[in-house]
TrEMBL record:
Biased composition (Low complexity): 31-50
One GO molecular-function entry: transferase activity
Signal peptide limits: 1-30
UniProt cross-references to PANTHER family, sorted A to Z: ALPHA-1,2 MANNOSYLTRANSFERASE KTR1
Span list, region Disordered: 31-61
Protein's name in the database: Nucleotide-diphospho-sugar transferase
Amino acid sequence: MPPPPGKYVRYLIIAAVATTLFLLSRSSLPLPTTTPVSPSNEHSAGSSGQSEKKQSSSEVMRFAATHHGSRANATFVTLARNTDVWEIAQAIRQVEDRFNGNFHYDWVFLNDKPFDDNFKRITGSLVSGTARYGEIPPEHWSYPDWIDQDRARKVREEMKEQKIIYGHSESYRHMCRYESGFFFRHPLLQDYEYYWRVEPGVELFCDITYDPFVFMKENDKKYSFVISMYEYERTIPTLWDGVKQFMNDHPEHIVEGNSMRFLSDDKGKTYNNCHFWSNFEIGSLDWLRSKAYMDYFEALDRRGGFYYERWGDAPVHSIAAGLLLKKEQLHFWDEIAYYHTPFTHCPPDEQLRKDLRCSCDPSGNFDWNSHSCLSRYFKTNEVPLPPGVEEYSWLAIFGFVILFANIACIFAVAINSRARAEVLITVRHLYLQSQTFWERYQEEKREWERERLRMTR
Ligand SMILES: Nc1nc2c(ncn2[C@@H]2O[C@H](COP(=O)(O)OP(=O)(O)OP(=O)(O)O)[C@@H](O)[C@H]2O)c(=O)[nH]1
Ligand SMILES: [Mg+2]
């Protein structure tokens, strides 16, 4: 007769439960119910967390109340193919209904091929400002002469085998390089000061009753975002080496009071892969055209990582915003509810959602998901996290403690031969019992089948 499940097996079971609790608690952090503080408002806020949140929830709205009628020199910008026409039509309609129908900013469309009449007719009829269509000069959408195209092709083949997203794609690499270093130099954008990037298929869920461009200008903001997350490391293995080289060669461009803490957990030795998701951006074209940014882009471009790896424009823009700008010049838009597959930003504050007639489900908000970098952004700006959001929830701490206690027990079992034997006997006993249960179940099932057949005859 085998022994009953021994105390050692209990440790193993508790360890498994603790691990599950820990993982569950990390993947579903509690949803905050208040609007987080905006970093730019932090210093004027009081010392209690609650009063800070109240002030911040209306920062952009207070701005809206006091800035009627002023306009910025700004445009929407979309890079698209002719085949993207219906997806961009959907996105334009949302931007127009939620914002631009009242403001009539222009819209610049860029393509590496000529736009066809169909694309121009459909998009042109939706934009309430002037729609402009530009072709990208071939030298901005092709290999620079220092790139070894054979090496680039081999990398694409390897990444295809490794199933790295877009790793096989040549056009995706041209696109990322173009968005990183060229779009703001297109002649159609020369006369504008600010841009708002819109991609095909994106959605907006709240009214935008204020003018984000004017907000950017009045507050000296240069780069803004809605969603932030971690980059897929295998697409950028040497990007940070390039950044470190640039910091070494051009210390004059690295500003005091930057957001290095958002990008690195060890004061710049390594990159933590956090970036602002660049399919939504409102930013300063003048900043992108500045010597600092151009030196940065050229330093990276020379290393060939857009083609020898698969550097995305999101980490490239984000690292620049993090190092070449003061942290106060960055902005997080809590009020802009936004979707790009597969993530949503939906403001947690119910009052704000009512005020802005939002249609998004706050339980789908990505901000406090463990893949989001927003909590790092808040910490960088010394902004308290909303209640209920901590790096490690109580459940996770509990899970950790039990986990470590159990690892110690498992270790004790492993080095004790008698305990090992007991665990093996008990596991075998459990296995045999489960087999008996299974056989009994099969027999019952067969009996039930036989009975059913008898009844139907
Ligand atoms: N003209 C042109 N535009 C492109 C090309 N590839 C991508 N784009 C545009 O570049 C932007 C980014 O491309 P996406 O395919 O959306 O890339 P992504 O956002 O990383 O990936 P998804 O998750 O698939 O949206 C979009 O505005 C596309 O329309 C291309 O070959 N030519
Ligand atoms: Mg996209």
